[in-house]
Amino acid sequence: MTAEIIDGKAIAEQIRGEVAAQVSRRRQAGEPPPGLATVLVGDNPASLSYVRGKQKACREVGIDSQGFHLAEDTRQEVLEKLLIDLNADPKVNGILVQLPLPSGLDEEKALTAISIEKDIDGFHPVNVGRLAMKRRDPMFVPCTPSGVMVLLQKTGVKISGARAVVIGRSNLVGMPTALLLVRENATVTICHSRTENLPEIVRQADLLVAAIGKPKFVRGDWIKPGAIVIDVGINRVEDAGAKNGYRLVGDVDFEEARQVAGAITPVPGGVGPMTIAMLLKNTLKAAEMASIKK
Ligand code: NAP
């Protein structure tokens, strides 16, 4: 069997097109463009590049983005004061604090300072709590996990009743993805670094989500024939032949897994593009909610 390749780039492109069209309809109706504020503390090169990518994506769909770049040694009170000011700014519909914050800053306190109506990353403890509770709806769902769900849905696979295995339990990816799968009535097993007999557990999965951060960690013979494999991992591995001296690979050994799986996401071009597309979608949703409230 050779797996169907789930084209995250094309699906993300379609979502970005839909957001751009909706932003343009809003403008024609005299509504202001949605506004996103990005808050970056320090000069972590990966974070700088992620924030730039998000701002560029905003411009492309007509979302206004304002960037706030604070020094590495910014005090907690200064960061929180900025977030409180942004909460009160009607031109800002969504606030994104780029993680990780430099050590010395309290991430939970910072995320809690964001108004839940502007929490487009879905990391506010109230939104996370609602995601975990039955019959409660978070205002926003974290972008990478919601991108994973869209990719799964696009394969047409039945999620309800399926056996899902999520490898990784981070606040950012693993745990919210597992919660979303449970909400869709999958039977979910969450695995992590202390899990015993991981390959055996993975072999039971109809749906497998890998969010580990270890290159090609999941081998082809761990995968149940026909399973849907969503590889969230983005890992740099040395490659002398590549322009930058490295290339990106996922947490799953793609070449092995594609011989067994029913469908699989590539890295790059799978989950990565979906994360930004879902961020744009969440920012538009925040603007629409603000318009209704007016
Ligand atoms: P993280 O916070 O480091 O979490 C990694 C998880 O993997 C942890 O729960 C850890 O378990 C588990 N783990 C580590 N070693 C393991 C092992 N040997 N066996 C089983 N589980 C193991 O990472 P993250 O933020 O969730 O990100 C995971 C990957 O996704 C990274 O490659 C990251 O770059 C990528 N990512 C991609 C996107 C995207 O847009 N595509 C977005 C975010 C992240 P413990 O909890 O026990 O430590």
The CATH homologous superfamily of the largest domain corresponds to NAD(P)-binding Rossmann-like Domain
Low-confidence stretches: none
Q: Secondary-structure element sequence?
A: EHEHEHEHHHEHEHEEEEHEH
The second-level CATH architecture of the largest domain is 3-Layer(aba) Sandwich
Say what the CATH topology of the largest domain is.
Rossmann fold
Name the shape in a single word.
Answer: globular
For the record, what CATH class of the largest domain applies? Alpha Beta
Report the strand count: 11
Rg (CA only): 19 Å
Helix- and strand-based class? alpha/beta
The tally of helices reads 10
Estimate the strand proportion. Answer: 15-25%
Bound molecules: NADP nicotinamide-adenine-dinucleotide phosphate
Mean pLDDT: 97
Which strand order does the major sheet show?
A: 1-11-8-7-5-6
Rounded to the nearest angstrom, the distance between the terminal CA atoms is 54 Å
Largest sheet: 6 strands, parallel
How many discrete structural domains? 2
**Helical content class:** 40-55%
